[in-house]
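Each field is listed here:
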Amino acid sequence: MGGGVQGRRPTVASIDLGAVRANFGEAQRRAEGRELIAVVKADAYGHGAVPVARALADAGCRRFAVATVAEGAELRAAGLRLPTLVLGGVHDDPEAEAALAHGLTPVVHHAGHVERLARAAAARAEALPVQIEIDTGMRRMGVPAEAAVELLESVTREPALALEGVYTHFARGDEPDLAPSLAQIEAFRGVLEAARVRGVAAGLVHAAHSAALLAGKALADALPEATAVRPGLMLYGARPAPHLEADLRPAMTLRTRVVHVRRLRAGDAVGYSALFRAKRPTGIATLPLGYADGVPVAASNRGSVLIGGRRRPIVGRVSMDFVGVDVGDEAVEIGDEAIVFGEGQGERLPVEEAAEAAGTLSYEMLVRVGSRVPRVFEGE
């Protein structure tokens, strides 16, 4: 298929690894001496896990976090040997054995994980390091706080396992009101204290994600036991919420080029279902990317792109492979560059702005950039 032709489509995602390293430095500054666990799950939020992980290691990162064993195995296959936390744990015996084979650190969420990992690690000369997630309010994964000490003790009693760390995850850390997160910290600290009384050494203690790091010192001061943080989104130059200010550099720029230009008369429709009709004579530029490449259908008649350093509205329904852009009477030509989000043409169109226009999150905008969009790495 395709006759081996590559690189002809002018849509690319440019990844600035220098920005990743700079954002890691900002996270380090905010961590105030705590260890950084860099979250590189979901192909490093769509940026390319292996190149990003290498850049982070060069910047001084000493620990990664991924969601699945397969993601950790990808790092190992690329020669990245740093300790790597598997946030999602293991789901069957073969996956547990794969985690051991690749030297990964699985997260334990319930007693079944303890049993499965202990079986897999029974023949090892050294105990398998694991971490435990404490559910203090997310109610997604992790052991409920009221059952946490029992699970912690079961790990410490199991000779095949070694408790490396304990953490929780904020459900509302990106909100201006920090009260819900402070309540989670109180519950987490209660578990840590009860475990300490029972003689359990927690090891690494962490709760802060990107939003918590950017929220200032309130959350950090409320958890003095924390010895680590685990930033994700901020490493890629995006903010989890508008009120969270930070000196971050966007790492991804999604860019393409105009492939067609046509003139419309007043009343002419654009795209499927005629969702847009021109109110006046205007120009429409067609861009060769669509919802298969990371532009949500919800951006139809709402989003914008940069062409010639100016914001131009997306018009008509976003299709799988193309979008239309209203360029008015401007002299836009085939081959002109268009920035969907990121930096270029002396301007910046933040991914947060593109996400808001589409009614989604910057996280989703980044990870949904499709696999047929080549990643071009800069600053290696």
Notes: The mean pLDDT is 96. The CA atoms of residues 37 and 230 lie 4 Å apart.
